[in-house]
Amino acid sequence: MGNGLSSDRLLPCLPSFQPLHIVILGLDCAGKTTVLYRLRFNEFVNTVPTKGFNSEKIKLWLAAAAEKLRPLWRSYTRCADGLVFVVDSVDGERMEEAKTELHKITRLAENQGVPVLVVANKQDLRDALALAEMERLLALRELGAATPWHLQPACAIIGEGLREGVDKLHAMIAKRRKALRQQKKKTR
């Protein structure tokens, strides 16, 4: 499912004059739609699994996670300023699959250096994995020095941790844009 939002309503922490292309990805049932609606409306919206992609004229995209649709992620992440990868903190059995998909999308040539916010969703649940364990299972340190990342504990239903994560993502995007501008100046 692809869904997006205009940055002036969606993420009040981001300057409205600065359009950003941010894509939300993750395995099915990780909480991507809940994250999206919590950020967009600042309220819980009861969701159902999304089939295919939904899209609006927006700056934030939510891509469906069904295995057969994952190859389409590449078209949504092209020219992305940032990626949000939502992971179900309770679903330890699928961490290897999540790791594979995360590494696959960040290793694409067009995504080299794109900042990644990994949202460790459902941290409010009793069986949630610790952040250190999630970092290890997702092999976040193996993403490479060129890919800035941040692992953010969150509970999308109540919105806990999302604002902090988006603030961190915005800071990583701003730092990357500044470095790219400086690099362009040097090559002139």
Helical residues, percent: 25-40%
First CA to last CA: what distance?
41 Å
**E-strand count:** 5
Low-confidence regions:
1-10, 54-60
Largest sheet, in brief, is: 5 strands, parallel
Topology as a string of helices (H) and strands (E):
HEHEHEHEHEH
What is the arithmetic mean of pLDDT?
A: 82
Q: Could you characterize what this model shows?
A:
One of its GO terms (molecular function) is GTPase activity. GTPase that recruits MYO1E to MHC class II-containing vesicles via the effector protein ARL14EP and hence controls the movement of these vesicles along the actin cytoskeleton in dendritic cells. The chain has helices spanning 7-10, 32-41, 73-77, 95-106, 131-137, 162-187; strands spanning 22-26, 60-62, 82-88, 116-121, 149-153. The protein has 188 residues and is α/β, with parallel strands linked by helices. It has a 5-stranded parallel sheet, sandwiched between helices. Helix 2 (32-41) links the parallel strand 1 (22-26) and strand 2 (60-62). The longest helix is centred in the last third of the chain and has 26 residues, at 162-187. The protein starts with 6 loop residues before the first helix and ends with a helix.
